Amino acid sequence: MKIFSGTSNKPLAQKVAKKLGTDLSPLEIHIFPDKEKRVRVLEKVVDENCIVIQPTSPDPDSNYMELFFVVDALRRSGAKTIKAVIPYLGYQRQDHVFRDGEAVSLAVIATLLKWGGVDEVISFDLHSIKIPEIFKIKLTHLSALSLFAAEIRKMGKSTMLVSPDMGGIRRIKLLSEILNNMPYAVIEKNRDLVSGKVTMTGISGEVKENAIIVDDMISTGGTIVTAANLLKNKGAKNIYVFATHAVFSKDAPRILSSPLIKKVYVTDTIDIPKEKRFQKLEVLSVAEMVATSLSS
Ligand code: R5P
User: Fold this and answer.
1) What is the pTM of this model?
2) Which residues are catalytic?
3) Which of 9, 64, 121, 179 gives a 20 to 30 Å CA spacing to 89?
4) 219 C-alpha vs ligand 1 centroid, how far in Å?
């Protein structure tokens, strides 16, 4: 097995390679002044099973193109199979037509991955469980929920899980089951598709002292901070946040540093640069799970 990494999350790729007892295989990625990229595989891959690790945040278009080029280079160099580990799979938000006239961006990505020669995609905590149906190649769906459960078990009694929207209900039920049926509640959230503004109108279930908000991703932080406000008003004293993908766009780190929130746990599906890290942030690694999946 040969493991290659694109440029979007080398630290994770290095950890995965180390867990598998190997090093990353060399790849040359040259960026021209106009930002075009030229990719070259620097190792023999004839008849090899090849892995490419490349989440697509923070710059989805550029990171996807890089991934497509690496896959193409591997295919042309004689690779036997190609698995794309895309821990954060960009364009998941647009997995169907919400309003007339829209593109289904994720369907385009799925077509390009198959057409480019990818045999399997491995990803984490997909936005919706319907996403694998869009893919015509195997999509292995891993989850960080077991990592979250290990942290949540350390927290005291009077703890509850909260999904900040109806879309997260399946996720929260699964986590509750892992945690011996820990109580959970779901918030009613609405997002204006034009302005992006989030409003929350109510919550099902009794709010406890320790409230744990669980989401698949944090982008602007708007969802989390609006949910935290609602929970505080309903009597929560300690509010924790768990989210798999630290997209952290705009000034999310500042918003998440709010005194309303005790701690924010995310994973390393997306590389978090120094300037986006903040005191309350804890990053859990998915490297072991990726390595286990690749070796099974
Ligand atoms: C929405 O359905 C997702 O699960 C997240 O809640 C959302 O993408 C977070 O975005 P933001 O941080 O911008 O509110």
Assistant:
1) 0.96
2) 189
3) 179
4) 6
pLDDT digits (tens, 9 = 90+) for 160-188: 999 999 999 999 999 999 999 999 999 99
Across the strands, what pairs with 185?
162
- Tokens linked to 48: 């090899």
How far is ligand 1, taken at its centre, from the CA of residue 121, in Å? 23
